[in-house]
Amino acid sequence: MEEEWVYCEMPSGKYCELETLLGTTPITLAIRMSGGDNKQLFVKQLETQEKTTKEAEILAHVMGHPNVITLHHHSTETCKLYFEYASGGDLQDLLDEHGFAESHTILVMRTLLKALCFLHKIGIVHRDLKPSNLVFMDSTDISSLKIADFGISTFLNAPGANSTSGTRGYQAPEVYSGKGYGMKVDVFSVGVIAYCLLFSDRMPFGKEDSGPSLIPLVFPDDVPLSPLARDFLSKLLEFDPEKRPTAEEASRHPWLAGLSFHREQQRKSSYHDTYHFFKGSKGVDMNMESGDFASQNYVLRKNK
Ligand SMILES: Nc1ncnc2c1ncn2[C@@H]1O[C@H](COP(=O)(O)OP(=O)(O)O)[C@@H](O)[C@H]1O
Ligand SMILES: [Mg+2]
Fold it and tell me: To which H or E segment does residue 273 belong?
């Protein structure tokens, strides 16, 4: 792909844009030329002005939370959204590299649910939570995770909020049953993400395009999993939304509260591959208490 810097002027300053590749996906990055901060931005090109306005409107409501992506500005004319640049990649990239130990999944879940509680409190349902829509500002810090891609997010009371949308496999059963749904569709997706992390990208109900049917939830027996982790997954992956916890309730699940029990399990059971990996990498000490985890940085990917 040919890379070419293009100079452009926006109401908020002057930028240079560069078309480049993120893996195999063409993306545009922009560098602010004025204002003295030389900030790198991530540019998302949309197909229509309508989509641009809609995504920008939702983003205007969610900005300011440390775990939600910040939109710097947008151009309806060119259908471009200019975001802060998350240089740590997305969660799917990390999953493609390795599975996650329970301790790291707990940290991802805590951060993700904290941001989701915020979205739900202001009445927004994301509707497309999945690893590729969760980005990291810093690849060495799980708490730098941010929810991105509000392309199909909506206010729950908006017209069309009950339409079938999202990515099969991550969707709650009520989304495509056509019976109407609420905020808890996001909680189901969080459950699918947790399952993918713990079981090295395996989906709880089959492939991405199949979606959950009435097959029971099973846990692969080649990965040791604590009873609390099983309980967390079973509760979030509950088919009946009435019985499924809210984001707030899920964030108070005892599995997320502490790591002592988990540490004990890891000592007893044969170790996760990733445990060996993380043990050898900077910053993760499985003997730490949960409070210590929150205050430290963690290496998420191998140093290449
Ligand atoms: N602010 C950002 N900084 C860096 N990369 C990002 C950012 N937002 C998204 N991405 C990357 O670009 C991909 C596509 O962006 P996304 O908003 O999910 O658009 P789409 O609607 O095409 O899925 C994401 O999966 C992620 O890898
Ligand atoms: Mg996306």
Answer: helix 273-280
